[in-house]
Amino acid sequence: MSSSVFLPPDAGNMINAMRALGYSFKTALADIIDNSISAGASQIEIITPSSAAEKQYLAVLDNGCGMTKEELIAAMKHAGKSPKSKRNNTDLGRYGLGMKTASLSQCRDLFVLSKSIDGVKGASWSLDTIEKTKDWTLNLFNELESQSFPCYQFLNELPKGTLLIWENFDNLGKETDIFDALTEKVADAIDHLSLVFHRFLSDKKNPLKIIVNGREITPKDPFLESRKGGADATPQEKIYVDGYDDPIMVQGYTLPHQNKISSEQMQSLGVSQQTITEAQGFYIYRGKRLIYWGDWLRLRRRAQASKLSRICVDVPNTMDKIWELDIKKSVAVPPKVVREKLSEYLTIMVSKSKKIQSSKGARVVRKEDKNNLVWCPTVLGKNRFKVNINKDSSLYQELFCSMDNEQKRLFEAYVAMLEVYFPTRWVISQYQDDSASAFSDNENTESRALIKQIAEALKDNPEMLDSLLMSNAEAADNISLTAAVLQEIFGDKND
Length: 495
Fold this sequence. Notes:
It is built from 17 helices and 16 strands. It has helices spanning about 10-20, 25-40, 70-75, 100-105, 125-135, 145, 150-155, 180-195, 200, 265-270, 335-355, 395-400, 405-420, 425-430, 445-455, 460-475, 480-490, and strands spanning about 45, 55-60, 110-115, 120-125, 140, 160-165, 210, 215, 230-235, 235-240, 250-255, 280-285, 290-295, 310-315, 375-380, 385-390. The strands form three sheets. An eight-stranded mixed beta sheet has the order 5-4-3-6-2-1-7-8. Strands 9, 10, 11, 12, 13 and 14 form a six-stranded mixed beta sheet that branches. A two-stranded antiparallel sheet has the order 15-16. The longest helix has 22 residues, at about 335-355.
């Protein structure tokens, strides 16, 4: 007959193994902010020392509901809440591990002080203590003892709230280098937090402030919703899953052509190190919190054709299990029924992105303008195309007929070189890096001067000039610049 034996894990070994779950500094910090948001905080401050001479720490202070002694002890317990427990819609947690595992992945000492109706109480996990006692030994502090911790005075000024402190950073290099390393990590985390929590930060009804060393974080805008005209948004759709009352909400966004996105708007789209191409994909939210982005969930590869596509997916926290959400809230795998729906949606969105990049989404060229196009692109078949200079253009013909035979020979040779040796690969690489053409920039003085030069040369026929320039401006994505220059020269008749 079989028997059983009580065999708990070694506390020291277990907690060191949990440190290797894969948290980065910025994802760990985001997990801490999740707890503050779940506690109803409207302001969260991240504070680090101002000089290398001070003891190094990172503090996160919030004005949430705070915790009593009993609530604090429960919050410090590893896996203190079952992932199967029903949570309210604003609860960003799941496993009851985030605050502890995220913190101890970055430091050896975690302190949590909380102010509630029973005053200030404190508790801490110390890896040194756990390894020494070989047990889950939680240290507790009364209000007097809590006063010695960094930033205590800021917590004490609040009617209620929580102060979390990281100390003893053992993954940031030598002790003398920790200040610089910590400063760099925090700077990198700002970019991440401004994207992950952008919906909270831009919420006008219940705005959240995240302040880092006195400076408020500004939210990212991955769908360019704040841009005049914005992105092209589809109507919001619902996907229902059997067994769940709340639906998954899906909405697609197609960004404008990159030539129509300012450098400031480009910065607001997402993480600064990413290009538009790298940031395409599904943007999956759980309780307004962005948990996954920049990929098509293996439904297709990232490609130039789909670079302007973004699909916003809001998943209720009741579906955590079927989405295989991990502890770090950084991996999400949709169930088969949802993948099929998203795949259909994705096909539509990629088509929209292709149209904009091929200028098919722009104004249709007037029939009488087609002979004035400078370039004639032609699709020869699958995976083959060519672009020739339009030799039927009235301007081309007028110029060509004015030449003698030797000039014609040289001119045609030069035009042939323009066609055959067009730097296609170089241009494509610039677009893949999200570089915008200077000729589309309304502030570019060189571009304006060139358009004025063209206008001056053709000023004797203003109607043909308008037709010629505006037709080609559509293909070159500099309509606004060309129209502005013509307005300067000819006034209202070119509106």
